[in-house]
Amino acid sequence: MQVGLQLTRAFFCFALLAPCNLLFAQSSNVPAGFEAFLQEQTTFVDVDFDGRYVYSRLATFDQSTITFNDPSALLKSIPGLTNTEELLREISRPMMNNQQFKCVVEFQSNCGSIATDSIDLIFDPANYHATFFVAPKYLSLQLQQVSKFLPPSSGGISLLQTLNIAATGNDRNDEIQQNINGRTLLGFGGSNLHLTSNYSEERGYEVDDLTWQRDANGKRYIIK
Fold first, then answer.
1. Same domain, 8 and 84
2. Cα 224 to the chain's mean position, in Å?
3. pLDDT for 9-57, tens place per residue?
4. pTM above 0.90, yes or no
5. In 95, 173, 208, 210, which residue has its Cα 20 to 30 A from 14's Cα atom?
6. Residue ranges making up the domain that contains 202
7. Any residues with CB less than 8 A from the CB of 45 and at least 6 apart, and which?
């Protein structure tokens, strides 16, 4: 009964593509055929820093640690670092994977980051992905002041206009009905105005939709 329960839990975890490492680590009796989850593995690992992809190279990991095969190249891929000799010593040895800090579900709070006084990471073995975190004292002042968002747009006025014309009629008379649909996009800097209009002989000119939109600092403002 105990073995059957362990197998059921293992297959459930595998079917959801979730990391089973913690589940197996809690049990000393690993189901037959799943021993590979506990063995050391070497594969390509993607690395992010400050929300950006920076590196992808070989790394070796087990249940609790990860070791990068070329720590010097990894460190060079992270921009704006100072005192790199100290940091190189840290990442040249096995680093704790800190799986307990990774976000498991969407909108989960208190996860996905680490407060460190040196350099640390969160490694997700299910996706072969590592996110690095560096203490502010090892970051150049210029990097600390760089915004995560694009600077305000310096673009001038731009206009995009599209027209669709439809005409209907028949062979019994010469009457032809026309309909003109227009879409107008007027942009200036980070703001733009959307206008959807329609004209027909029967109803004249009509405005179907008028929307003002502005994107700034990761947010979108809309007035309709």
1. no
2. 29
3. 433 343 333 444 444 344 445 666 666 667 889 999 999 998 889 999 9
4. no
5. 95
6. 157-168+176-223
7. 56, 57, 58, 59, 61, 66, 68, 123, 128, 129, 130
